[in-house]
């Protein structure tokens, strides 16, 4: 049972990144999935969620209108499209299945 994030990097303010999370070892298509982030010196912050069929999408107010969550159940993959990135978005981004299964995270740094 594993979640592996990728797609992080360094980008200038206003830029975009697309994160991916590859799931394995469980029936991905049956689970609500989340993105969670942790900025430097901060606690974890929930970012977004998506229900198994791709509906029931919700976002934190801090990213609403800039980030888009999606999933491909045929590929067992979760995505997060991040646009109009701000320095405050700098964080380690995790995909998570509930509270019990998290990936190792992918670093996003927004800096000029």
- Rounded Rg: 13 Å
Please summarize the sheet with the most strands.
7 strands, mixed
Strand/helix succession = EEEEEEEEEEE
Distance between the termini: 38 Å
Helix/strand-derived category reads mainly beta
Arithmetic mean pLDDT: 97
Helix content: under 10%
**Beta strand count:** 11
Low-confidence stretches: none
Percent of residues in beta strands? Answer: over 45%
Q: Based on CA inertia axes, which overall geometry fits?
A: globular
Helix-strand blueprint:
Elements: E1 2-6, E2 9-11, E3 17-24, E4 33-38, E5 44-50, E6 58-59, E7 67-72, E8 77-82, E9 91-97, E10 101-102, E11 106-110
Parallel strand pairs: 2-11
Antiparallel strand pairs: 1-3, 3-8, 4-5, 4-9, 5-6, 7-8, 9-10, 9-11
Which descriptors would you attach to this protein?
7-stranded mixed β-sheet, 4-stranded antiparallel β-sheet, single chain
Brief overview:
The protein has strands spanning 2-6, 9-11, 17-24, 33-38, 44-50, 58-59, 67-72, 77-82, 91-97, 101-102, 106-110.
Explain this structure to me?
Helix content is 0%, strand content 51%. The protein is mostly beta strands and 112 residues long. Strands 2, 4, 5, 6, 9, 10 and 11 form a seven-stranded mixed beta sheet that branches. A four-stranded antiparallel beta sheet has the order 1-3-8-7, with no helix packed on it.
């Amino acid at each position: 049972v594993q979640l592996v994030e990728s797609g992080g990097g360094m980008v200038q303010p206003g830029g975009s990144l697309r994160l991916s999370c590859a799931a394995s070892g469980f029936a991905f298509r049956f689970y609500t999935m989340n993105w969670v982030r942790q900025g430097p010196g901060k606690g974890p912050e929930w970012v977004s969620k998506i229900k198994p069929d791709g509906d029931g999408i919700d976002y934190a107010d801090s990213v609403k209108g800039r980030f888009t969550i999606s999933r491909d159940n045929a590929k067992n993959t979760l995505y997060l499209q991040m646009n109009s990135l701000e320095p405050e978005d700098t964080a380690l981004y995790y995909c998570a299945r509930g509270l019990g299964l998290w990936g190792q995270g992918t670093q996003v740094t927004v800096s000029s």
